[in-house]
Design goal:
The protein is mainly α. It has a single domain, classed as MFS general substrate transporter like domains (Growth Hormone, Chain: A, Up-down Bundle). It has 17 helices and no strands. Helix 1 (2-20) crosses helix 7, helix 2 crosses helix 8 (146-161) and helix 4 (45-73) packs antiparallel against helix 15. The longest helix is centred in the middle third of the chain and has 31 residues, at 214-244.
């Protein structure tokens, strides 16, 4: 029976991981194609980076729609419908006649992919709580974080024998497979009696309640700001590695993927050790690691250091995301069982909206400057620390006797 339960748990992890990994695949798989897309459309690098921004906005806004919808209509139907839309948008990307049509299709693609991210997290909260929630989410992150490793390598493999268009044909095929998986393998986890009213005002009021929750907002902002910094890293490294350091698309994919290993390390540390080290302490450790590693990375950039000096601090910076995202998700979702979809939507919205802001800023100094990326990842690390200590950290109530002594 125990072995059967473990098998069922891993089957659920793989299924939900496939749905939530659609976001990283959609973001990362076409990154090695940035220079080729720029040349093919005869456009500027900033417009190609804007296609990433459009996708991130779609991923963010889609979650704020799909999360509450899943609280009303259940988890299964919204996932299936959005996956059908995703595969259609992927093929539109492949046949786009110009950069502006491509950017619009990327927005739709991101919007559709959002359901897999937000609803898979809501399903986890439907089924688990407490330390079990943290451990299951770390398992989900293990599967989910494999895709940032696989996606650039797969993307560079596809463009090695075809054009960037092949990347989006592959993404459309992935959409078809996921529609079949969702139809056959995803069971409903939110019974009708636990669903929210379909009244729009009540849904909006629920989100307002979440945003007025000081601790929830602190965790959400800390996670969102940190991941906003990661999107600056994601948007900047294709040009930094390939244009500044002369890396081939294949070497870029390996470097990008090796940093992705650190995501897995960070998230698994939290999942394996959460009985010994609290999620709150892990969150502080991750935030401090992010600030230190991003400061070192910016220093290397300003000193025009070699590639081998830049990769290690970026590795540590990405590892800090694995730590903070796992810990902050568990802390934020723990008290939100009554509206897990809406809470998951807010947690998902902030990173993508902030990422949509940071991504185009990376290219503000041109293709041959890494300084904007370094400044952004340091700034986001410091702002995330401020959000946590300003909002989420519990206030210590001093002993009355100590207060009396201080007053005298």
């Amino acid at each position: 029976m125990l072995q059967e339960n473990k098998t069922n748990r891993w089957r659920l992890v793989l299924l939900l991981g496939a749905f939530s990994a659609l976001g990283p695949l959609t973001i990362d798989m076409y990154l090695p194609s940035f220079p080729e897309i720029t040349a093919d459309f005869g456009t500027k690098a900033s417009l190609v980076q804007l296609s990433l921004t459009a996708c991130l906005i779609g991923l963010g806004l889609g979650q704020i729609v799909m999360g509450p919808l899943s609280d009303v209509h259940g988890r299964r139907r919204p996932v299936i419908y959005s996956l059908v839309l995703y595969l259609a948008a992927s093929f539109i990307c492949a046949i786009s006649p110009n950069i502006y049509c491509f950017i619009a299709a990327r927005f739709i693609q991101g919007f559709a992919a959002s359901a897999g991210i937000v609803i898979s997290r809501a399903v986890v909260r439907d089924l688990y709580s407490g330390p079990e929630l943290t451990r299951f989410f770390s398992m989900l992150m293990l599967v989910n974080n494999l895709f940032p490793l696989i996606a650039p390598v797969a993307g560079s493999g596809v463009i090695s024998f075809t054009t960037w268009i092949g990347v989006f044909i592959v993404l459309g095929a992935v959409g078809i497979v996921l529609v079949l998986l969702a139809t056959a393998g995803l069971k409903e986890t939110l019974p009708p009696e636990n669903r929210m009213s379909s009244n729009f005002g009540q849904l909006f009021q629920g989100i307002q309640t979440l945003l007025r929750d000081r601790q929830f907002l602190g965790y959400a902002l800390a996670q969102g700001i940190m991941i906003g910094g990661v999107f600056a890293y994601v948007s900047g490294t294709p040009f930094i590695y390939q244009k500044i350091y002369g890396a081939s698309p294949q070497l870029f994919a390996l470097l990008f993927g090796s940093n992705g290993i650190s995501l897995i390390i960070g998230s698994q540390l939290v999942g394996r050790l959460n009985r010994v080290v609290s999620e709150r302490r892990f969150l502080v450790i991750g935030l401090l690691l992010s600030a230190a590693s991003s400061l070192i990375a910016l220093t290397v950039i300003l000193l025009h250091g070699p590639l081998f000096a830049l990769v290690p601090p970026l590795f540590c910076f990405v590892a800090s995301i694995g730590i903070t995202s796992t810990a902050s998700f568990s802390l934020a979702m723990e008290s939100q069982s009554h509206m897990a979809g809406s809470a998951s939507a807010v947690l998902g919205l902030l990173p993508f909206l902030l990422g949509a802001i940071t991504s185009p800023l990376v290219g503000i100094a041109g293709e041959y400057s890494a300084v904007p990326m370094g400044v952004i990842i340091l700034s986001t690390s410091l702002l995330a620390l401020l959000a946590y200590f300003g909002l989420a950290q519990k206030r210590r109530i001093m002993n009355p006797a100590v207060l009396k002594e201080l007053g005298s």
